[in-house]
Amino acid sequence: MATTQAPAINMDELNAFLGKFVGDLGAAVHAGMVVIGEKLGLYKALSDAPATSAELAKKTGTDERYLREWLASQAAGGYVTYDASTERFSLTPEQAFTLATEDSPAYLPGAFELALGSLAAVPRIADSFRTGAGMGWGEHVEGVFHGCEKFFRPGYAANLISSWIPALQGVQAKLEQGARVADVGCGTGSSTILMAKAFPKSEFFGFDYHDKSVEAAREKAHKEGLSGRVHFEAAKAKEFPGKDYDFVAVFDCLHDMGDPVGAAKHVRQSLAPGGTWMIVEPFANDELKDNLTPVGRVYYSFSTLLCTPCSRSQEVGLCLGAQAGEARIREVATAAGFTHFRRATETPFNIVYEARA
Predict the structure, then answer these.
(1) What is the pLDDT of residues 168-195, one digit of tens each?
(2) 332-349 burial by CB neighbour count: b if 16+ within 10 A, else e?
(3) Could you give the CA distance from residue 216 to residue 193 in angstroms, rounded to a whole number?
């Protein structure tokens, strides 16, 4: 009887891969720890002053034994600093900036909430690998919606007003003078409200096909005192109402759409003469080999769990994916009749495109 010879194992390479595994496993379970830390206000409390587990438990009204274990996990992961001589935990300025300061452009907890929410769909998505079925955005758990908003909001807050809009030809001047703006796929309205606060003479209309996100956006606009000129409505990207928009924006969602070309055609028809369409998409190169990076891994994973199933659940189901790249986004815009298309600016996480008819 023939025997199969075991492959030769390079122990250095094996140990290096096992080390990677330990890091990834720790990161996976650590995501839950970060979500707990934000939910219970532990990072914010710890950012005020160093504390022992007992002191922090008293300050936050939490159980000391659970908190002691949580703090140890945070210190082991480098998210919290531990002083063995005083047995106190603390946050460095950098740790506080990313974990306890919600308006920071580098606020991290939302990304972990989005990850945990996405992972809840793993059993269904695994079955979709066999059936090819989709999963609509609204079918995910609430952590996906809340985490998505928290994940993208810091980047929008840091870049949208200061660099993305100024990179577009003539758009900032129109917004300052008073323009009609549509934010298509607005989610819970963070991008819409940021623009509305920056350009008080303009009127904004946010559209999203997920009714619960629209309800949350309306509540935010009301709290900000913007209800009079910021309007939110449930509508599909191919069907949102209104004409003569001076500016239409689509933030990190064109690749989620079942028929992005159809949506792009509707955007073109809704624009006023000389109007501009801004497309914000996750950073991606055109070639797969150039996206095999830490950022690419994040986006391809989210795309498997969220973006591709979302597109597959809709008509056409083009499934651009979160790493579509400039060439494919250009194809969508060109097929919709846009004659001007360019990369206006970029960050390590996003690319901003400008399209005009």
Answers:
(1) 999 999 999 999 999 999 999 999 999 9
(2) bbeebebeebeebbbeeb
(3) 12
